[in-house]
Amino acid sequence: MRTLRLALCQINPVVGDIEGNLQKILFYIDKAVAEQAEIIVFPELAMTGYNPEDLLFYPAFIRKAEDALDEIAKKVKDFVLVVGLPVKKDDLYNSAAIISNQSVIDFYHKIYLPNYSVFDEMRYFKPGSRTPVYEYDGVFFAVNICEDIFHPSLPGLIQAATGAELIINISASPFYAGKYQRKTRMLTTRAYDMGVYVCYLNMVGGQDETVFDGRSLVISPSGEILVRGKAFEEDFIVAEIDMEEVTRTRLREPKIRWEGDFEDREVIKIPLKRKKKTIPSLLKSGRKSIQIHEMTEEEEIFKALTTGLRDYVTKNGFKRVCLGLSGGIDSSFVALIAVEALGRDRVTGVFMPSRYTSRESREDVYELVKNLGIELIEISIDDLFDEYLKSLADTFKDQPQDVTEENIQSRIRGNILMALSNKFGWLVITTGNKSELSVGYATLYGDMAGGYAVIKDVYKTQVYRVAKWASLGRIPERVFTKPPSAELKPGQKDQDTLPPYEVLDKILYLNIEKCMGEDEIVEYGLDRETVKKVLNMVKRAEFKRRQAPLGIKVSPVSLGKDWRFPITNKFGG
């Protein structure tokens, strides 16, 4: 039997921490060598972290990554290693280094550079043009990078037609809910259509507003998933695959036999003999069991939010977070996420009641804090609010109270949270959701004040769903059932200003995710006046969104890099 042992190193690098990433890579190399891996694989831009953005404009940054590659090459002797990094040749490329015998055998340069959603790779890189295949002592494999495998022809089809039996795709593919299922269907189709093993290695961890979910895969030539890496966690996977399966599959189903001759076919021989393995062969899957836990959308979103918050706090050196607690669903849910991400000892809730705070809200805050086991600080805003009203009395003379006085209360709370942040070095995490931020139902320099917006990309109806799934009795039941309210004036309810959230979120989804205007949305059975009002609110709130903290992307179109609209905008839609 002609077998090959792969080691997939699903790591969580830190952008810019080239030395730290180097040490992590060296650690996993030693681990893979101990398992007698023949090909060891690391993700896209593993050396620098993804996405380095404008760090790539600095020659010293590129040189440091290349110096780290030299250090790695010294450790690579009787095996093959594939690792991602930026490489400067005639131009800058998003590359995979193929290393063996203490030297770089070749660089594969990414061909398809994504320039949509959170991606901006054409700003930094030149696309590659080569589609090489590597021969390693009778085993033919190819390497490509992330977006390359999303395309049904170049480069994968050329590599398979050139003789590749295994295609290794190194990736930094950001998460959004539902993407993994579609991506898995695509990858299994690629493996089946080309009659090859597909090794898909994805990065894991949070980087600013993006989260990488891992869940790396090894897929057989028949489209069967043999190995699946952990979700939202680092993982080390060793998989032994039967290369004769490719021959058997292609002879029986010769789907790529008629793909024609490509003039640019290139086979590079790696001058290395594969060592006979002395440890027992692994199961085909590389694990004792291949039972697969399929995540619900609620679990996926919750895992992404906890991963994003944990890595943002940890990678930026914060020891603690604080947040305002109101007794409502949003702040309760964010507190729960913070505890899951960081532990109860690193979370402080701040309760800032006013004359309009209900008894129920106070009770719910204290029950939540008890259930979560976090520290609580209570600071009343009433005296401060009175001082504001006195100071503005002459200026506001003869003017009725309106939203101005409501926003003053919110801004007092924002000031208190930022004072705690300045004094103790805590990160303020905000609690506004996607529904509110979309229509501007939030106070600039008030409840929008903070460093990280945890649920910025989660619609209100999703908040209820995911919080219910994750709560396990920790969020008081009444929080799920009472009408949402900002409690900034007597008897206030969100629905005094907004349509019911079920209606609002449907309109927002069709507008934001599906790019539909007023007439198209109305065709879905929604009231025209309501649609018109909501879309007008969305447009008018753009200036607020530009000043909101960054937050975690969990949808195809988040209100961050995915959403780029002019503030000055007269288009009616």
Describe the protein's architecture and organization:
The structure is a single chain. By secondary structure, this protein is of the alpha/beta class. It has 3 domains: 3-269, Nitrilase/N-carbamoyl-D-aminoacid amidohydrolase (4-Layer Sandwich), CATH 3.60.110.10; 297-493, HUPs (Rossmann fold); 499-540. The protein is built from 17 helices and 20 strands. The chain has a 7-stranded mixed beta sheet. A 6-stranded mixed beta sheet has the order 5-4-3-2-1-14. Strands 18-17-16-19-20 form a 5-stranded parallel beta sheet, with helices on both faces. It is elongated and about 85 Å long. Residues 283-290 have low confidence and may be disordered. Its EC number is 6.3.5.1. Pathway: Cofactor biosynthesis; NAD(+) biosynthesis; NAD(+) from deamido-NAD(+) (L-Gln route): step 1/1. Catalyzes the ATP-dependent amidation of deamido-NAD to form NAD. Uses L-glutamine as a nitrogen source.
